[in-house]
Amino acid sequence: MGKNFFSDKTIIVTGGAGFLGSSLVPMLESRGADVHVPRSKDCDLRVQDDVNALYDDVSPDIVIHMAVNGGGIGYTRKHPGSVFYDNLLMGVNTIHSAMERKIGKYVGIGTICAYPKFTKVPFREEDLWEGYPEETNASYGLSKKMMLVQSQAYRQEYGFNGIHLLLVNMYGPNDDFDLQRSHVIPALIRKFVNGKENGKDVVVWGSGKPSREFLYVDDAARAIMLATERYNKPEPVNIGAGQEITIMDLVKLLVELTGYEGCIMWDDSKPDGQPRRCLDTSRAKKEFGFEAKVKLRDGLKKTIEWYKKEWKK
Questions:
Q1: Domains in the chain, CATH or no CATH each
Q2: Going by DSSP bridges, is the β-strand pair 211-212/245-246 parallel, antiparallel, or unpaired?
Q3: Contact 237, 125 (CB under 8 A)
């Protein structure tokens, strides 16, 4: 990765104060980028005038849009309307203002929740329009998917340089361990670490049969850096580790790593979500040389240690 690419760039990173931003922003700054992270109290990305004012004030060369209203299955099921509305408007506004101001590059961070519910594994980018997303997170997946539609339409009509990255579930230090919002890994880590300390049983949602793919947050940030520097095509790109694990096997691994010895109860009244998730990541490797480096076991160890030292203190 060439350091010189970022050294003279002014970059807006929406959502940069969040989980992924905690890895990406320092990486950008270490390569000399002038990074601006808008905060929601000062700039509501759902309001076009606020986005216009942000862009006019900063005059960015690049916009990386990561801001999101989202969470795990429980959160999305409870707030499907606001999830759809907020994410749709944030995408529409940040792209439209970037097009009007002829900003050099727009990097849209999408989600594999946009894929059809029964996509053949491994998911290929060409499969993105083969069906409707899994129902529990369709409002999220479709709202983010519209960023791809808008970017491609604006490229065709206005010459807009927008790219779209489809990220799998991330995990790592600085993740959100709030059980009302968290995704599966931080939720399970919290339950097992606390269960070990308190001697309590742990309830796990679903049957344990679905598979998921997980990407360590530093790998995700590195992928975004590489794509920002090297990729300028309209086709979406999968960003993942290229390997899947069932939730049941993930639970077994986390039990081992946390030392939890209590009882595990599977609540199959809760939804499983999409049956399987695993990406074909060959396009990312071919187009900008990205391959995940952090193995799941190693990443989970780091995440567990961070949770014990930082979240619980």
A1: 4-172+213-243+276-294 (3.40.50.720)
A2: antiparallel
A3: yes
What predicted TM-score, i.e. pTM, was given to this entire model?
0.93
12/106 Cα distance (integer angstroms): 10
Q: Which residues contact 248 (CB under 8 A, 6 or more apart)?
A: 208, 209
Instruction: Determine whether 140 is an active site residue.
Output: yes
Catalytic annotation, pick one of 55, 75, 140, 260: 140
- What does the alpha-carbon distance between residue 241 and residue 168 come to, in Å, rounded to a whole number? 8
In 3D, which of 215, 195, 214, 213 has the Cα closest to residue 204?
195
| Distant-in-sequence contacts of 194-201, Cβ < 8 A, 24+ apart | 195/260, 195/262, 196/258, 196/259, 196/260, 196/261, 196/262, 199/262, 200/262, 201/262, 201/263, 201/264, 201/265
Per-residue pLDDT tens over the stretch 41-74: 999 999 999 999 999 999 999 999 999 998 878 8
* Structural tokens at position 50: 């606020």
**What are the two backbone dihedrals, phi and then psi, of residue 13, each rounded to the nearest 5 degrees?**
-120, 100
